[in-house]
Amino acid sequence: MSIVNCQLTMVDLHGQYLRLKTEIDAAIQNVIDSSAFINGPQVGLFAAYLADYLQVPHVIPCGNGTDALQIALMALDLQPGDEVVLPAFTYIAAAEVVALLGLRPVLVDVDARTFNLDARLLEAAITDKTRAVIVVHLFGQAADMEPILSIASKHHLYVVEDNAQSLGATYTFADGTTQRAGTIGHIGTTSFFPSKPLACYGDGGALMTRDNLLADRIRMIANHGQKTKYNHQSIGCNSRLDTLQAAVLDVKLRHLDEFTAARQSAAHLYDELLASCAPKLLLPLRTTSSTHVFHQYTVLIKEGRRDEVRLKLRERGIPSMVYYPLPVHRQAAYRTLVRCSGTLPVATALCESVLSLPIHTEMTPEMVQYIAENLVEIVQ
Ligand SMILES: Cc1ncc(COP(=O)(O)O)c(C=O)c1O
Fold first, then answer.
1. One domain, residues 279 and 326
2. Dist. CA 311 → ligand 1 center (Å)
């Protein structure tokens, strides 16, 4: 397809569907034929398959990624007023569930080049009220877990990984051992929102843990706090992955490595074609400790030109997105509620310079080239 007559989009869910149509249609039809729409066998099969893929003993599906975070915190039995540390530059879900549960979000700044929680700043945020840290693996790359785990262990904190954006990324420890992002802390969470690395056709989410007791609590909380039917041991919620979504996810998980490879190859081509723009435009940094699955390809546009560049791209038919335009501590609902550890200058500055370019599983080298060439022209 020529780039001239093809509509550029941030993600191409329809194109991906067409490529997988035979498998997806059959999986959906199976569920409809059985009419086991809630807790059909596909839900358990998918959870087992994902557990195997991630090499983690427990995957517990739930309704969405925000529920997964809420259930994770509920399973940790935190008390009102307890503090939970999280990055200031992230999607709102983590701060939201902390606040909803009557806990206090404490914001820590992020690293200017990886966008992930800056482990060097973590310890200064901890007080005698701190009980947990939520680490968000942003844009496709795992945060630096090893120092975070060691600080958390020193202060007896739980570590929850919000892995909505980096499913499939692998973290390497200093001794060379590896673990999948989301399976390293006490509990990992993820979202299967349609644009996510592993995505369904509606809402979906899951929790991951290596801890048998936590897994039991998570299962119970996600199912109305029921230990057995009509025997409610704790206050829970109703959060399920429906069977249709599980069937779609089961098909898509078979293709996840190929999806990741497609995103990574688009990212590498962007890197090559945009390299000449430095230092006006900074490319995403790969760390040595994590693979990058490129949920987003996010560049930094310097000299206060981000919004102007974005507008000019739009005039040339090229979409882009700002993830995120405001840090958590500048959001109206959170301004007075959060405690900020320091002045959070990096999070604040990133909101003015980040720009995410189209990246998805259906991207052709021609599309990347068209976007990159236009961006180079605009930036220089
Ligand atoms: C980092 C992060 N956490 C949590 C969520 C929430 O997931 P969901 O939309 O499935 O509730 C998202 C979704 O955008 C996310 O990007």
1. yes
2. 26
Q: pLDDT digit string (tens) for 170-221? A: 999 999 999 999 999 999 999 999 999 999 999 999 999 999 999 999 999 9
Q: Say how many C-beta atoms besides its own lie within 10 A of residue 18's C-beta.
A: 11
Question: What is the rounded distance in angstroms from the CA atom of residue 350 to the CA atom of residue 323?
Answer: 9
Distance CA 311, CA 316 (A): 9
Mind listing the pLDDT tens digit for each residue in 293-334?
Answer: 999 999 999 999 999 999 999 999 999 999 999 999 999 999
Domain identity same for 248 and 312: no
Per the domain annotation, does 105 fall within a domain? yes
Q: Which residues sit with their C-beta closer than 6 Å to ligand 1? A: 64-66, 90-91, 93, 136, 162, 164-165, 191, 193, 203, 205
Q: Is residue 168 part of a domain?
A: yes
**Cα within 13 Å of Cα(10), Cβ side:** 16
Report angle CA 94, 172, 345 to the nearest 5 degrees: 45
End-to-end CA distance of the chain: 29
Residue from 99, 94, 140, 100 nearest 108 by CA: 94
Q: Of all protein residues, whose CA lies closest to atom 5 belonging to ligand 1? A: 65
CA–centroid distance, 204 to ligand 1, in Å, is 10
| Nearest ligand 1 atom to alpha carbon 66 | 11
